[in-house]
Amino acid sequence: MSKFALLFIGILLTGLGAALFYHGWAAFLLYEITYFMNPDDRWWSSQLPGISYSFWTAILMIAVLIKQYRELSQRSPWRSHPVFLWMVALLGSYYLAYFWALEEALHEQFTFIFLKLIVIVLVAYKLLDSEKALNGAIWAFLLGCTYVAYLATSLGRNAGARLEGISLPNAPDVNGVANALVPAGALLMYFAWMGSKKVRLLCFICGGLIANALVLFNSRGAFLGIVVSAGLYMLFMMFSRHRQKGQRGMAIVILVVGVSGGLYVTDAVFWERMSTLQNVESRDSGAGRVVFWMPL
């Protein structure tokens, strides 16, 4: 059996035991790791039972929530945040709009995807009831992104100017996979800014792999996302009134390392594709993403 298959089995059994006997938030971490490892689509999945692991880890989360609902509700009640009520109301409006939908099949498909998103958000809010749990969930996300980036780096470009063949449970193409990696940029900047030397080293390693993967995916949407999110957070790091002594200097170091690393991993193929962001010759190509923000 391959090492990745053994690793996944170990994570699955450990997460299951921790969710049932330690704390419910372990179920959410297991769901995150399973989502990014996505054994159903990996080459080593032939050595595992053919079940939908992402689905069953989601069921585990819901089961743990039901079991511990009364205890969790005392610390993190849904009613304390009106935004959850508005989320459910928005979902209801989508189902109501089904009666007037021009494409009923597509409307039903994407409304169901939105329903799953809301369920995951509500469950996560209940289970992640402490700072420790939240930090664990963030690091599970970052390590999951790093695993996907490792896969991308090991494969390299295999479809002309970009990499194909890596997917996630709800992202069958590389554009969706690349978009899933985008939030890791700002999160890694935060931990590199606030963490210890060991944490910073880990952040630089993860960040390097993720940046290289984004270049290989060659997704213009992901490029815009990482530039905007990382740029805005960099401004926060530089000019926030909440920064502590020495943090502005560290922000400058992170900026220099980040820009230098980004320039190092990019190549002419990447910049040639990014140069087509404003090309609106074809409305169906998605090449005019920034035109929406340009004045008429």
From TrEMBL:
Highest taxon above the source species: Bacteria
Protein's UniProt keywords contain Oxidoreductase: no
Keyword terms, alphabetized: Membrane, Transmembrane, Transmembrane helix
Transmembrane segments: 50-69, 81-100, 106-125, 137-156, 176-194, 201-217, 223-239, 251-271
Coiled-coil positions: none
InterPro entries: WaaL-like
Protein name in the entry: Polymerase
